[in-house]
Specification:
- 59% of the residues lie in helices and 3% in strands.
- By secondary structure, it is mostly helical.
- The longest helix is centred in the last third of the chain and has 18 residues.
- The radius of gyration is 21 Å and the shape is globular.
Length: 276
């Protein structure tokens, strides 16, 4: 590390907040402190660009305005509104999360990240982000834009920087009086850096290029779900394989995986969306 973070904490904050005052981004999930609405946004934002989430967030909340409404919704309705966000597993996990909240937390989102991490799809970042943005509590976490800021500012010449080196700096520079706004400021500054400089995240030990979506197994899984959602009836593997123009054995493997994960159900050799 080239600099001593404790000595420049205030100047670092001043630089980030100065940019934020003039260039803050406006997103609907930043205009709410409703814990359920924050949960929905954090599930949507996982591995998805903000412009795509902006298109889906408010329509999703209009259809499922409360935790209870999402918990009792048919999975087919949830997946239909999720279409376009990708990573359909997150929609499934989100619905499982709100149902868990109903049965274990009386419908209240806890302010304890460790409790939130009991649910599928909720890792350390998502758990701490939910608590910080919903309750303005000073938890330490890192995501791609935050990582970019700290790599740019504190590690300008280093390669292979690990998150365990960055997290102490995140903690030392954290605005504990208003962590919600501080993280928004960091994220906005990180988004700015991505447009102005060669991506600092390439110098992270954890940097991975996303595999192409076109022709991927993830794309085929999504196409299977889209066909079943559109037809609204059970289809056999042969029909699905023909619709996909994909080999039957591979189609059957995808159907078995989707069934095991809880997306679809099998009835007499045919598959349909698993509605509750």
């Amino acid at each position: 590390m080239e600099t001593e973070p404790c000595l420049e904490r205030e100047s670092f904050r001043k630089e980030i907040y100065s940019y934020y005052q003039s260039h803050k981004r406006s997103f609907p999930w930043r205009r709410t402190q409703n814990p359920y609405e924050i949960v929905v946004s954090e599930f949507m934002l996982q591995q998805t660009r903000t412009e795509w989430v902006e298109k889906k967030y408010l329509p999703f909340l209009a259809a499922f305005p409360t935790l209870e409404a999402l918990a009792r919704a048919p999975l087919s309705s949830v997946l239909t509104l999720w279409k376009g966000l990708g990573y359909n597993r997150r929609a499934l996990y989100l619905q499982e999360f709100v149902r868990y909240a109903q049965t274990h937390w009386m419908g209240i989102i806890p302010a304890d990240p460790l409790l939130l991490q009991q649910c599928k799809g909720v890792g350390p970042y998502t758990a701490r982000a939910i608590v910080t943005f919903a309750y303005n509590l000073p938890h330490v976490f890192i995501e791609t834009n935050i990582r970019r800021v700290f790599l740019h500012h504190f590690f300008p010449l280093r390669q292979g920087v690990q998150d365990k080196e960055i997290l102490p700096l995140v903690e030392q520079t954290l605005d504990r009086e208003n962590p919600r706004e501080w993280y928004y400021a960091l994220m906005d500054y990180g988004a700015y850096l991505a447009k102005q400089f060669p991506n600092p995240n390439r110098r992270s030990k954890h940097f991975l290029r996303q595999a192409p979506f076109e022709g991927s197994r993830r794309q085929l899984r999504g196409r299977v779900l889209s066909i079943l959602l559109q037809t609204k009836k059970a289809l056999d593997p042969h029909t699905l394989a023909e619709s996909l123009s994909y080999p039957l054995p591979e189609t059957e493997k995808i159907l078995k995986d989707l069934s095991a994960e809880g997306f679809i159900a099998e009835e007499s050799g045919k598959y349909r969306i698993r509605d509750y």
